[in-house]
Amino acid sequence: MKVAVIQLAYDDAEPLATRRERAADLVRAQRGHDLVILPELWGPTGFDYSRWEASAEPLDGPTIAALSAAATEIEALVHCGSIVERLTEPGVEGRTLCNTSLVASPTGELVAVYRKIHRFGFGAGEPKLMEAGDQIVTVGLPTTGHTAALSTCYDLRFPELYRRQVDAGADVFLIPAAWPMPRVEHWRVLARARAIENQCVVITCNTAGTHGGYQMGGASAVISAKGEVLAEAGPAQEVLSVDIDLGEIGQWRANFPVLADRRL
């Protein structure tokens, strides 16, 4: 499977419509890849909470429309990163926004919707403004027989989520993020840990640049089921192109059957 990880860089000055067009152009430039992934909240930004209400959109809004068209054009599965979704009705906490990841099929259909379970902000930001998701979401990787599970940024700190994803049949984790530079070493270590402990391929896609006063950490990566870093981006905008042998996952699990020895 050939994967393109688009580590998009941006700042507060770029209009959302311009950034959306730029992201779609970057996706279209990845023809020949089987899977393309974008970061978390690359449109409305991850830390400028004041923009979220105005930039919220439904699942059939302009972001998924633009990226679904690009997915169709290059015939690839496209993880669109995440948007601020405007819910059709308030959730259990009375909020009408969610941090929602979307995946478009090679024919442009919306095939996976994941609403972020663990909201970051310690009472501000996401917990104050957004509903939490409560569903494990997976998506089949076309023609491979393998299954990817979706999570987002802060989710990475909660290993029990990934165990549940494994139990749901996942052997690849797709993790977009808006992870800041001061904690980028946590990002690196936790991503490798999730790969090692679950014997899963981990594909992370972070943002670059500075927004809302925060410098983003970059360091998007593709990590094998053995925990080997196959590719890692620097701190600036970059596209990683990586060929992954998904057959190695089953071989590794058979040769070193950690998951079979679970007792709890």
From TrEMBL:
InterPro entries: C-N_Hydrolase (IPR003010), C-N_Hydrolase_sf (IPR036526), UPF0012_CS (IPR001110)
Residues of the CN hydrolase domain: 1-246
MF terms (GO), sorted A to Z: hydrolase activity
Keyword check for ATP-binding: no
Keyword Hydrolase (UniProt): yes
Protein keywords: Hydrolase
Coiled-coil zones: none
Family: Belongs to the carbon-nitrogen hydrolase superfamily. NIT1/NIT2 family.
Protein name stated in the entry: Carbon-nitrogen family hydrolase
